[in-house]
Design brief:
This protein is mainly α. It is built from nine helices and three strands. Helix 7 crosses helix 8.
């Protein structure tokens, strides 16, 4: 008398393993997000730990953006921090009293209505800053993306240095032209308006938890965008170029 055993098809077994890994990654992600949400409540609202964590989350957002260029497309961008600077200066120009001759107030609290300069709500400045950085990236990318390998790294490194020099030396004209103070040099533009979201109290420097949760929400949003881009058609094309650019070009990508 003989016994026979049946085995599941390989395709079914592989699919089951993929589903198992997918569910495990979702559980780990949910645990990490829960810990990140509860973490500030174990510290004082104005503690240095929350302030450092907020700064770290801001850099996480920047790193996730860099992951799209370097991680997905495989392009070695050494000047990515320049776009971070463009977004920061956009916030300074449109959310402070820097341009004291102007008087623009859009969606800000009553205490800012009488202040000189350009004062726009943070939710308005955020997409404008992203658009400014994207526009500069498109201008840089038009001639740069025709290069390959180390040449892209050299050009982007030079671009980052150019923006850095402009930021430092534009307190007395831009490129030595004129005498207008655009960036205030190494001192930077300060103070900048605090975040003022609808249906919430205005952010203060004594309670850092709202700052932390705002940075965490932005980081989670950018993570979601990263995953959606990776799984999209253009994301798969980027990954194909990263793996083998010649093979990708031969396949029409």
């Amino acid at each position: 008398m003989s016994t026979t055993t049946t085995r599941a098809p390989r395709s079914f077994t592989g699919r089951a393993r993929h589903i198992g890994r997918f569910e495990l990654s979702n559980v780990i992600a949910a645990i990490c997000i829960t810990i990140a949400i509860l973490l500030p409540f174990f510290f004082d609202s104005g503690s240095g730990f929350i302030g450092d964590s907020t700064t770290a989350l801001a850099y996480v957002v920047m790193a996730l953006g860099l992951n799209i260029v370097v991680g997905f497309a495989g392009l070695l961008d050494l000047g990515y921090v320049a776009f971070f600077a463009i977004g920061a200066y956009t916030m300074g120009w449109l959310g402070s009293s820097w341009f004291s001759d102007a008087s623009v107030h859009i969606g800000v609290a009553e205490q800012l209505q009488s202040q000189p300069g350009i004062h726009m709500n943070w939710l308005i400045i955020l997409p404008i800053a992203a658009l400014a950085a994207a526009t500069l990236g498109a201008i840089l990318g038009f001639p740069t993306l025709r290069l390959r390998g180390d040449y892209i790294a050299i050009v982007t490194l030079a671009f980052g240095e150019i923006i850095g020099r402009i930021a430092v030396n534009s307190d007395d004209g831009v490129f030595g032209i004129g005498s207008f103070n655009l960036t205030n040099g190494r001192a930077g533009i300060t103070p900048v308006d605090k975040i003022d979201l609808p249906f919430t109290d205005r952010f203060t420097t004594l309670d850092l938890r709202p700052w932390y949760f705002t940075a965490l929400a932005l980081a989670l949003f950018v993570v979601f965008i990263n995953f959606r881009l990776r799984d999209s058609r253009i994301g798969r094309a980027w990954i194909a170029i990263r793996e083998d650019e010649v093979a990708a070009v031969s396949m029409g990508i």
